Amino acid sequence: MMDVLHEICRRARSKNARIIIDAESQHYQKGICLVGMELAHIYNRDGCARIYNTYQAYLKSTAATLDSHLKQAAEEGFTLGLKLVRGAYMSSDKRSLIHDTKQDTDNAYNAISQGALKCEIGRIGAPGGLPFPSVDLFLASHNRESLVAAHKTHQSRVQLGLPTVQLDFAQLHGMSDDLSFDLVQMGARGDHAPGVYKCSTWGTLGQCLAYLMRRAAENRDAVSRSSDEYRALKKEVRGRLGFRR
């Protein structure tokens, strides 16, 4: 299996493409992380992440896992590809592994994203601790508050000449399009604008069904966001027709 993975990584590197390894339930995640870090050690060189591991903020263990991976990247001199999500395996992961409240998960997500942007997470990057390693940050979320705050922090640090990390955003195809468009427009007003991506599934319905069901469970608050999207679309239509916004 590793021979095949190395071949995929070499092909991706030759095409200047990135490989983002998705998270799984905790039955499999430790093995996935180990493989991802082994590949990152080889291919995430020259200050650029080709391989990303996915970190789920809803897990109580994520802070310790990330601390370990940051230390490894700092000591071994490679770039850590850090894709951050809230999490999607509520139905299969043990409840005791997950933060007690959604607010705790939100706080964990924001602490990691803001810490990475400020190049200080825990003792990594702090005075007296290990230097903060090279990190490429990929924030996958539909949470407007988290992403707008991250964008503002990133742009502020760029403008002030403070150290920060490479930043990109992503949402699912067909979800939170108004947020995606807003992030693009915000980037157009600044330097070193983060990339904004839409994630699309590819395959037959049978192949994609489990993935789509997890995304639906993960985004159960989509109905509450639909009113925001409706208002955004209505505002855009009125503007294009020449009415006052």
Characterise the protein shown here:
With 245 residues, the chain is of the alpha/beta class. It has helices at 2-14, 29-43, 62-76, 102-117, 144-160, 177-188, 205-218, 222-240, and strands spanning 19-20, 51-56, 80-85, 135-140, 166-172, 195-199. Strands 1-2-3-4-5-6 form a six-stranded parallel beta sheet, covered by helices on one side. α4 (102-117) packs parallel to α5 (144-160) and α5 (144-160) packs parallel to α6. The longest helix is centred in the last third of the chain and has 19 residues, at 222-240. The N and C termini lie far apart (56 Å).
Alpha-beta content class? alpha/beta
Average pLDDT works out at: 89
List the secondary-structure elements in sequence, H or E: HEHEHEHEHEHEHH
The proportion of strand residues reads 5-15%
Helical proportion, percent range: 40-55%
Catalytic activity: L-proline + a quinone = (S)-1-pyrroline-5-carboxylate + a quinol + H(+)
Family: Belongs to the proline oxidase family.
Pfam family, one: Pro_dh
Protein name: Proline dehydrogenase
